[in-house]
Specification:
Layout lengths: L1 H7 L12 E4 L8 E4 L2 H16 L4
Antiparallel strand pairs: 1-2
């Protein structure tokens, strides 16, 4: 799990916690959005961490 998290954490701009997300990568889209951070992905990442702490698993 640590390897997955280390590979997903952003090192570039620090705007988001997780990187490499995709919103729209459809080849004919006007604006393709791929391989970047998503705020709602960060929310769920933190939510899982908090729940693990609450259960005494982290």
């Amino acid at each position: 799990m640590k390897t997955c998290i280390d590979g997903a954490l952003t090192n570039e701009d620090g705007v988001t916690i997780l990187d490499h997300a995709t919103v729209n990568n459809y080849e004919h889209a006007n604006h393709r959005i791929a391989d970047h951070g998503l705020v709602y992905a960060d929310y769920y990442f933190l939510e899982v961490g908090n729940r693990l702490i609450d259960m005494g698993l982290a």
